Amino acid sequence: MEDQLGQLIQVAPRRNIRLEENLDKEIERFVQDQDLTIDTLLEACYLILQEDSELQARVVSQALERLAERKEAGKLRRIYSQMQKLKG
Q: Which Pfam family would be a valid example here (predicted)?
């Protein structure tokens, strides 16, 4: 049995990921409908991306756009928070 256990995939510790609210709901619904988990969906997506450089480029481009949007939103939230403190 130890040999069998040694051959199983090793799962890394849990990660917290923050998703856009609407996407979080859509992804949760999708994985439930497909009888998957978010973890296994993410793993499978990554493995497919490793095999398809064109798709990988599209995904990376989309991810970079989303990252820029999140950074901009963070800056605006910080500025707003600082303005509120100055008013207070």
A: McdB
Neighbouring residues of 50: CB distance < 8 A, sequence distance ≥ 6: 56
Residue 11 scores a pLDDT above 90: no
Please give the C-alpha separations between residue 77 and each of 17, 31, 84, in angstroms, as whole numbers. Answer: 20, 32, 10
Confidence (pLDDT) at 57: 98
- The number of helices, as runs of H, and strands, as runs of E, in the chain is 4, 0
The average confidence (pLDDT) of the chain is 93
* Average pLDDT of span 3-16: 84
Whole-number pLDDT of residue 63: 98
Q: CB of 37 within 8 A of CB of 31?
A: yes
* Structural domain spans, the chain: 19-51, 54-87
